[in-house]
Write a sequence for this structure.
């Protein structure tokens, strides 16, 4: 891609080679800051120990997002405490789950619940995923067959969601959601899983797979920084807007009733 096709070249900057990768489900893990910096911009606190795995906690302390690459199999754990609508729940996503797909779930943790009933299958069907019943299970498979989402019943009768992607070399990842995982979170995950747009990876971080397609692009550090900052700025703006609406709500506490004739003045 020629220099003229990109805007924002800074003085003295040297373009770096990156690749657009498709399908995104096979693009590899990516940069965890895509998730952690967004959560931090939404008011989440980092609880990570020095040199240890990533741990982020929501302002209410009811939600936690952790990433641990130091254990086997390693990966993401998202945990929610029980509330008035859902029991305690957790989701576990493998280390090679692309951060853009993980972010579908973790970004949704920062947004209020939708008034509409969630439909996990809708974003998959919009992208022409094939759906079929397998006994008591229900499965959706991507058009190229590399990724799938499954709704399944366990031996104890509990219903769980499972997702995964794998290439012909058996490289890939899996994700599982416990029964109480809120459906709007599974839907948000499914939306990014089915997203047909490619994702970007730097040179040397593109998986070796016969099933991916890549396009080489030249990107400057300032461009990468601007794109990352735009995501963070959007998170801060949305958080500020939600907090402003919350703080502007009228108080419901009853004020003391003033006696007829006006308040008395103490002498």
């Amino acid at each position: 891609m020629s220099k003229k096709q990109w805007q924002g070249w800074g003085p003295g900057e040297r373009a770096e080679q990156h690749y657009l990768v498709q399908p995104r489900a096979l693009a590899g893990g990516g940069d965890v800051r895509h998730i952690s910096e967004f959560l931090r911009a939404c008011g989440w606190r980092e609880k990570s120990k020095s040199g240890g795995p990533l741990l982020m906690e929501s302002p209410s302390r009811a939600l936690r997002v952790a990433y641990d690459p130091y254990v086997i199999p390693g990966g993401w754990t998202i945990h929610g405490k029980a509330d008035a609508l859902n029991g305690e729940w957790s989701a576990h996503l493998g280390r090679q789950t692309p951060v853009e797909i993980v972010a579908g779930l973790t970004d949704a943790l920062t947004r209020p619940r939708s008034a509409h009933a969630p439909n996990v299958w809708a974003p998959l069907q919009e992208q022409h995923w094939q759906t079929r019943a397998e006994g008591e299970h229900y499965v959706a498979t991507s058009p190229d067959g590399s990724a799938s989402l499954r709704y399944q019943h366990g031996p104890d009768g509990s219903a769980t969601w499972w997702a995964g992607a794998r290439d012909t070399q058996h490289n890939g990842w899996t994700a599982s959601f416990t029964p109480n995982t809120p459906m709007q979170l599974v839907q948000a995950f499914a939306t990014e899983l089915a997203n047909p747009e490619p994702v970007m990876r730097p040179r040397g971080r593109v998986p070796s797979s016969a099933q991916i397609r890549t396009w080489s692009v030249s990107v400057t550090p300032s461009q990468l920084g601007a794109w990352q900052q735009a995501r963070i700025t959007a998170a801060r703006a949305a958080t500020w807007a939600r907090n402003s609406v919350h703080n502007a709500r009228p108080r419901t506490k009853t004020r003391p009733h003033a006696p007829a004739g006006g308040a008395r003045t103490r002498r």
